[in-house]
Amino acid sequence: MLHIARKFDVADRDARNRALGRAGEELILVHERSALRTAGRNDLARKVRWVSEEDGDGAGYDIASFTPDGRSRLIEVKTTNGWERTPFHVTRNELAVAEERRSEWCLLRIWGFSREPKAFELYPPLDAHVSLTATSFQASFN
Predict the structure, then answer these.
(1) 85: burial class by Cβ within 10 Å (0-12, 13-18, 19+)?
(2) Distance (Å) of CA 117 to CA 76, 79, 110
(3) Is the pLDDT reported for residue 120 higher than 80?
(4) Confidence (pTM)
(5) What is the pLDDT at residue 11?
(6) Which one of 51, 64, 81, 142 has the minimum C-beta count within 10 Å?
(7) Mean pLDDT score of the chain, rounded to an integer?
(8) Confidence (pLDDT) at 135
(9) Residue 24: helix, strand or coil by DSSP?
(10) What percent of the chain has pLDDT over 70?
(11) Residue 133 in 3-state DSSP?
(12) From CA 77, how far away is CA 119, in angstroms rounded?
């Protein structure tokens, strides 16, 4: 395997990815509230929370919403400018929450964000829909 060294600004890439992710989450937050209002559930629309913004990014989902019948809906948003099959990252914590709260959790995949955003949802178990590949390892001392 040939490894090519190249110079690129990791901090700049991370900042762009964070901004893109935040924009995708905001789009879904607005959509969820609007969908609940359209369904006549203003009471639930007011309770939709942007968890990753309000509480931090460790809950295993980004938005806490509801179905029109009042069931909890935990949404992890994954946004890219690429096509629908562009790879995206999922954390170990997100996978754990997906397993623990299968009936509530979904991954909402936004693609083509900078052109014409489109989206679809994936439900646990995620490995039934995508291949999960380890791309990073934690090194601990023995």
Answers:
(1) exposed
(2) 16, 9, 6
(3) yes
(4) 0.89
(5) 83
(6) 142
(7) 94
(8) 86
(9) helix
(10) 94
(11) coil
(12) 10
Q: Sign of the CA dihedral 9, 59, 34, 68?
A: positive
**Which structure tokens are listed for 89?**
């990252």
Answer positive or negative: Cα dihedral of 97, 100, 106, 112. Answer: positive
Q: What SS3 string covers 42-111?
A: HHHHCCCEEHHHHCCCCCCCCEEEECCCCCEEEEEEEECCCCCCCCCCCCHHHHHHHHHCCCCEEEEEEE
Tokens representing residue 90 in the block: 């999922």
* Tens of pLDDT, residues 5-61: 666 777 888 889 899 999 999 999 999 999 999 999 999 999 999 999 999 999 999
Return the amino acid letter for 87.
P
Q: End-to-end CA distance of the chain, in Å?
A: 29
pLDDT band at 1 (very low <50, low <70, confident <90, very high): low
